[in-house]
Design goal:
The chain is an alpha/beta fold. The protein contains seven helices and 14 strands. Strand 1, helix 2 and strand 2 form a beta-alpha-beta unit. It starts with a helix and ends with a strand. The structure holds ribulose-5-phosphate. Ribulose-5-phosphate binds next to helix 2 and helix 5. The site of ribulose-5-phosphate has 17 residues, from helix 2 and helix 5.
């Protein structure tokens, strides 16, 4: 089974969490794109969605799924999103697609965060996947120097602007043994808008797709 087939399988399994819910928070990425395709088939069973990126909004609308402003709906019942890395504590690295800030906002505003991923995303320690850090453009070099002090190797994601008009630094070679501490430390660097450690907004449920099926933890 290919990685994309596993993503599709796990996205289908997540439909269970969408049924009979008013508003679904929808993440960003290729796994979530499969979810949106499946959601299109059960449109009557939920009211609509809150989106975590412009890309997801476009896809939801193209599928005929109403998209609501987060400010208009308040707390969201369930948020479903992928991840770049998942540790055994259900803490994540996210932001490979650059949507980390809005993803973290919708996750924070949701009662339950269901993370959907293929088994390659499961790790013991976060950090092999470069940590995405969204920064105010004028702070990029300063933040990069601060990330070097934390032991990382920052790489500017060139020719990429986030939905919020900011830039991304991908920080390589971090061994994130204490995700909460790393999330706080990076957030405290002036100029950082958000970083891709999801420890305070970790997942409540992980659906992991493998050739043997989908496991829930
Ligand atoms: C986007 C994300 C995605 O959830 C993450 O990159 C996983 O993507 P995919 O489902 O394509 O593997 O955080 O900002």
């Amino acid at each position: 089974m290919t990685q994309d087939e596993l993503k599709k399988k796990v996205a289908e399994a997540a439909l269970e969490y969408v049924k009979d819910v008013a508003i679904v928070g929808v993440g960003t990425g290729s796994t979530v794109n499969h979810l949106i395709d499946f959601m299109a088939g059960i449109k009557g069973q939920f009211e609509g969605a809150v989106s975590s990126s412009e890309g997801t909004t476009q896809r939801l609308k193209a599928a005929g799924i109403p998209v609501f402003d987060l400010n208009a709906v308040g707390e969201v019942e369930v948020y479903i999103d992928g991840a770049d890395e998942i540790n055994p504590q259900k803490e994540l690295i996210k932001g490979g697609g650059g949507a980390l800030t809005r993803e973290k906002i919708v996750a924070a505003a949701s009662k339950q965060f269901v993370c959907i991923a293929d088994e390659t995303k499961s790790v013991d320690v976060l950090g092999k996947f470069p940590l995405p850090v969204e920064v105010i453009p004028m702070s990029r070099s300063y933040v990069a120097r601060e990330m070097v002090k934390l032991g990382g190797q920052p790489v500017w994601r060139e020719n990429f602007i986030t939905d919020n008009g900011n830039e991304i630094i991908d920080v390589h070679n971090l061994k994130i043994l204490d995700p909460k501490n790393m999330e706080e430390t990076v957030n405290n660097i002036v100029g950082v808008v958000c970083n891709g450690v999801f420890s305070y907004q970790k997942a409540d449920v992980i659906l992991l797709g493998s050739a043997n099926g989908v496991t829930t933890s």
